[in-house]
Amino acid sequence: GESRIGEHNISHPGRIKRVYLDKANVKPLESAMAAIERASVIILGPGSLYTSIIPNLLVEGVVDRIVKSPALKVYVANVMTQPGETEGYSVYDHIRAIYRHARAEGFIDYCIMNTGRVPDEIYQRYLKDGATMVKTDTGKIKKLGIKTVERDLLQINKGYVRHDPVKLMQAVAEVCSYRKQSKEG
């Protein structure tokens, strides 16, 4: 059903309420669980909320392992909404959907968000397709106990809006340095 998720609003108008795995007892790879245990940083995103991020959290034991991990947990917010999937969503809405599906609250430590502006001619094309920039709503995110890092992370690649990999890497490194400083200080 993953390929049809963006079309759900044709038969079910409104926001997606729940996604689930259609097979019972889906087990994670031990190598994935070991990687979570060894991680010093766990990064969720960027990616499609309901088809890339949340499905991984539905696999038995993954959320529990992430929550128990002492690793820094970072959510990288998408730059643009996705028609039929996250229309009208803010960063806060993305996080709430993650927590709701994970059946766990408060495990994200930091949220990295884009503040760059999409050039108007490209943005107009996205608007015609039903996509908008994801609103950052920093105050609501901070009320969840999540620290925020807001940077221009934008890259336009062949007319498409993407995260600039170098800028994103710098933002992640910045978050890691905050943690190192707090442990030393």
Spell out the helices and strands N to C: HHEHHEHEHHEEEH
Query: What level of helicity do the residues show?
Result: 40-55%
Average of pLDDT: 91
What structural class do helix, strand and pairing data support? alpha/beta
Radius of gyration: 17 Å
Largest sheet: 4 strands, parallel
Uncertain stretches: none
Overall shape: it is: globular
- Our measurement of the CA-to-CA distance between the termini, rounded to an integer number of angstroms, reads 49 Å
Counted beta strands: 6
Strand order of the largest sheet: 1-2-3-4
β-strand percent reads 5-15%
Number of helices: 8
Outline the fold blueprint.
Elements: H1 8-11, H2 30-38, E1 41-44, H3 49-57, H4 62-68, E2 72-76, H5 91-102, E3 110-114, H6 120-128, H7 138-143, E4 147-151, E5 154-157, E6 160-163, H8 165-184
Parallel strand pairs: 1-2, 2-3, 3-4
Antiparallel strand pairs: 5-6
Helix pairs in contact: 3-5
Structure description:
- The chain has a four-stranded parallel sheet. A two-stranded antiparallel sheet has the order 5-6.
- The chain is of the alpha/beta class and 185 residues long.
- The radius of gyration is 17 Å and the shape is globular.
- 24% of the residues are buried.
- Helix 3 packs parallel to helix 5 (91-102).
- The chain contains eight helices and six strands; from the N terminus they run H-H-E-H-H-E-H-E-H-H-E-E-E-H.
Quick structural summary:
This protein is of the alpha/beta class and 185 residues long. Strand 5 and strand 6 form a beta hairpin. Helix 3 packs parallel to helix 5.
